[in-house]
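Researcher: Batch entry, complex prediction.
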Amino acid sequence: MFELLRAFVKKEMIQALRDPRMKFFLFVTPMIQLAIFGMALNSDVKNVKFYAKPMINDQLFRDIKRDAIASTWFVPVEGSEKPGGEDIEKFRSGALDLQLYAPEGGLTRAYEKGEGELEAVIDGADLVRGRGINGYLNNIVNEAVGARKGKAESMDFESVAQTKPAETQKQPIYFAARTLYNPELQTSYNLVPGVICMLMCIITIMMTSMSIAKEKEIGTFETLISAPVSVKEILLGKTIPYFIIGCINLPLVFFVAVAGFDVPMRGSYIWLAVATAFFLITTVAIGTMLSIIAKNQQQAMMGSFIFLMPAILLSGIMFPIENMPWPLQVIAFFNPLKYYATLLRNIMLKGGDFYVLATRTGALIMISIVCVTTAFKKFRLHLG
Amino acid sequence: MTGNFKFRRAIAIARKEVMHIMRDPFTMIVALVIPVFLTVMFGFAIDLDIHDVRMAVFDADISQSSRIVYEKFIDSKYFVINKVAPLVARADRPLTTEKSKLSLIIPHKFEEDLYNGRGAVAQVLLDGSDNTTVNLVAGYVAGIETALNQQFYESLAPQPPVKLVKVTPRFLFNPEQKSPWFIVPGLSVVILAILSILLTSLTIAREWETGSMELLLSTPARPAEIILGKLLPYIALGLIALAFIYVAARLVFGVPFTGSYLAFITGSLLFIGTYLSMGLFISVVAKNQQLAMQMSLMAGYMPSMLLSGFIFSIPNMDTIWQWFTALLPARWYMTICRACYLKGASFGDLIVPFAALIILGLIFFTAATKKFKGTLE
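Model: Structure tokens for the complex:
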């Protein structure tokens, strides 16, 4: 049986990789993509186009404007103070992100009276960016005010990572905040494990489901059934190649992540390999189940997407699961991507805690067992 | 293969394609049900206001003041305390074990320091492994710090009011900062992009694989006619999907539509046309469905999700990458969608995205036709 299986797997591998372009798209493009995403994506707010026109004698407002420009996050642009309010046309076209208004009589005077209030009109169409702008602006204003007070003690942006000596403390309570695992808040640290998880499951699920659907579509499936091979052999022969392809992909993207983006690898490679193996078993089994439902390759592809879109959403890669309504949290509980994404981040960034490794890998093993047995049963039924 | 471009022949091919779609109800379901399903699901799932952040408290002081401090966290409604321990050792444990996102450490003599005027320091550990939320959480912590200080100022010694400058933000176009207003218009771009590429990338590859392409070629239809004929039904399908998403956005999530419908429909048509052409181009080049799928994944799915400005804003990127995103149709349609739903854009406001989409669309359409012609010879 083993000989036969090996021949089968070999044939499948050759078939899958016969087209040299396929090799390129399977192994090289994931690396390129990871590199592009790692370089391009950034959660820091940059290039904020703002307009502020402080009065000549409004020293505090002028300081704020100067500090904003000096921070390099804010870029001053021409604007106009319309009598009725902000220049909505400029906001609409994206030429302006932020406009600042001082209260009547100037900000400095209002501040001295103890009622300093700076009105900030922000483009809220891109809400994430808008909030980021608000946060940065607050930091700059606090610093400018702190500098005016003669004590730069208000929370500046860097202070998240600093601890302050108690002697200089003027406020009763101070929170010494420290960000662990990613103190400089590098976007790539967070993004890379997520993208690895996405790439791995997209490739394996799609490839598996399509390869079986292809046999159905062109009619070779019948030949396969009539051949003297068992259901188990067909199933293994069809899935092992894509499992192997997934296994090859991991070190490739991992290399880009660690070498190209200095994403730390603080945990054990063995755990990573174990977790990946069970994750791939699960995805390959899911691909098989999808191919059973699908009549042709197009359906297999669409089915994979219908599975993948929600699975990625409910994985916690981009949006925290705890923040979702409870029915979705329940669904997420059964999502293999959730466990794999947690494992990747925990191993790479936190060094891998045994409790997390054991529970999450355990969950993956359970899911993979359920998926494999279901796939096997359905597949046999399907053939029969 | 001879003669001029005849629209009639393109229509005939379109009709054949329509029959093909009709025969396969699966495609119809995917095109019509899935967009709405995904819109509703994503719209409910994604909430940009982080709440229920799990936190652990290590209270070595066990005093009235330390209680006040961590109860302030609970009162803020952003945090849920899932552990209170008197021991300060290994305060990062809850973070490594994924049980909490934040550890608050209140040291011994916290209350004493507070009342003898030396200033009390509590330590906060944040989980940086998830930096989509850590900035927000840090902001909440800073807000709680300010609130606590005000409270203690008042109780410690009646002082003149603290001088500060309060920034009052006003968010244009989304004054109440509702997440679905941000998510849903962007989502429709991602869903349409995926749908278009899914639908078309395989159509020509399939004809090659099953051999029916030879048949199609032996007819007098010209490449441009075949390509156009293949496109038209899917454009219609895409528009229907778009209408469904629109209804879901308006009715389920109450997203406003303040812009010009003419601009929105023009932009949508251009976008669908461009993406479909891209899908067809891939289909022509690949000739093999599995390869076509891989290519469209790499060209369509991940970039439209991550590089279109859906979550990661384009102005935040470095200039070179901002230019790079100009090559992606989804990036332009994202601008159109947000402008039409939220910003009240008119047709004239969106000339640049329209032009960009037309150029990209023409490039893909000619490339698909050319390449198609090339493969015939």
